[in-house]
Design goal:
conserved putative lor/sdh protein from methanococcus maripaludis s2 fold; about 425 residues; four-stranded antiparallel sheet; alpha+beta; 22 strands
Length: about 425
């Protein structure tokens, strides 16, 4: 009997153990003990926010070269001087294909000759028509005069029928005269209108001829002064022989080497706080060991793509150097730049993951005694991984690096990303 009871007790104990093993571990909700939450000790120190960007050198002053602005059609590039070559004043640096302009000139002359012929024919025809109408009007006037002069009105001499016929003849002659005069006026106005239209066509042909002749004279672009011939990059593409370009578009430039500047491109997401006057340092890829001091001289108003095939947008930023080193700085050289947006001393900073958003407010969880309490904070500038705290914390505070009100195994990236987005925005 005792053996049976012992076996029964062992079986019950095993069942209890199995049941307890099958029950899932309860997750902690509410404040975790301080020992189970990673913390960070708030301290003071220096803070800086920098942006890295790349770009190219260009001259602050340069002469832009391109197709003649008077030509209102695209021109094909027929020849280009070598990119980066040294040219002298008067050297031909760009040639455009004259084929299209020569065809325009030929067509314009043909149109002008055709219009001149039409005007001459129209003038001759209208002169004949005018004379015929004048003759018809003269005949109508003579008929009216005759009808009025020999109209029978005396009823003692003429019968009733003759008197009526004479009255009808007079009225008909009057109508013929009026019609002839009116037809002459209308025909003259219509003829003048047609001649005016032909004159407009002739002026259009003259304009085409004039533009083509002027364009043909400017198809060779010459260097206005000595310098380096540099092709202009547009939408990530450099001009090349066979390419069509519109008048006014830049094909190349001859820069002034005495004053160089850097054209860099800052990612749209990193451009918050960009403004004129910010300090920067620049390194040339050709001379990476040397740093050149500069400052932001211009920031584009709108972000744009650097390449039409890539949707990423950048803000174009122009950097002015404190000093141009003409011996090493050449137009087109690639550069790496670092812009300093914020440089603060003796400020409180915390990791980004320590800031959360609760009920529309930015909070951190500071340890007070054995518990973590939410503390509303006011954020300052932000850098990758760190935030400046302007109000709400003291040096030496212990803050949680994760939300202690949530269980350990629950993802918390949403709050962190929300806080970061709010800071950046």
């Amino acid at each position: 009997m005792k053996v049976k009871q012992l076996v029964l007790l062992i079986a019950v104990a095993a069942a209890v153990l199995a049941a307890s093993a099958a029950v899932p571990t309860l997750r902690r909700w509410g404040n975790d003990p301080a020992s189970e939450v990673p913390t960070y000790v708030v301290s003071r120190g220096d803070f800086s926010r920098k942006i890295h960007a790349e770009g190219n050198l260009k001259a602050a002053d340069a002469t832009i070269l391109g197709p003649p602005t008077k030509v209102r059609r695209p021109l094909k590039i027929a020849w280009l001087a070598p990119d980066g070559s040294w040219v002298k004043e008067g050297d031909v640096v760009i040639r455009f294909d004259p084929t299209d302009l020569e065809e325009e000139l030929k067509q314009g002359r043909h149109d002008r000759a055709t219009t001149d012929s039409q005007i001459a024919q129209k003038t001759v025809r209208e002169e004949g028509s005018r004379r015929n109408l004048e003759r018809d009007a003269e005949v109508a006037i003579l008929e009216l005069d005759y009808a009025e002069g020999f109209q029978g009105k005396d009823d003692l001499i003429f019968s009733r029928t003759e008197i009526i016929e004479a009255e009808i003849d007079r009225d008909l002659a009057l109508v013929k005269r009026d019609h002839a005069e009116q037809a002459g006026r209308v025909h003259g106005e219509l003829a003048q209108t047609e001649l005016d239209l032909l004159s407009i066509e002739r002026r259009k042909a003259e304009l085409t001829i004039s533009q083509a002749e002027e364009g043909l004279q400017d198809l060779e672009v010459r260097a206005p002064h000595d310098g380096i011939f540099a092709l202009k990059t547009v939408w990530g593409r450099r001009p090349e022989v066979g390419q069509m370009v519109w008048g006014g578009n830049a094909v190349a430039e001859i820069p002034e080497p005495e004053t160089m500047e850097a054209q860099i491109y800052v990612l749209e997401a990193d451009a918050g706080g960009l403004e004129v006057g910010l300090p920067a340092t620049v390194r040339l890829d050709a001379h990476p060991g040397v740093t050149h001091r500069a400052q932001v001289n211009k920031v584009a108003a709108l972000a744009q793509r650097r390449n039409h095939r890539v949707p990423t947008q950048y803000f174009a930023v122009t950097l002015a150097f404190d000093r141009t080193v003409t011996e090493v700085m050449k137009p087109g050289q690639r550069v790496q730049a670092v812009l300093t947006l914020d440089e603060l001393e003796d400020v409180l900073t915390v990791p980004r993951q320590a800031v959360f958003e609760k009920d529309g407010k930015k909070v951190v969880y500071a340890r007070r005694g054995g518990r973590f309490e939410p503390v509303e904070v006011e954020l300052g500038p932000a850098a990758p991984g760190r935030l400046v705290i302007e109000k709400g914390l003291r040096e030496g505070d212990h803050i949680a690096l994760r939300d202690p009100t949530r269980p350990v195994d629950e993802p918390q990236e949403d709050d962190q990303e929300t806080a970061e987005a709010a800071v950046v925005g």
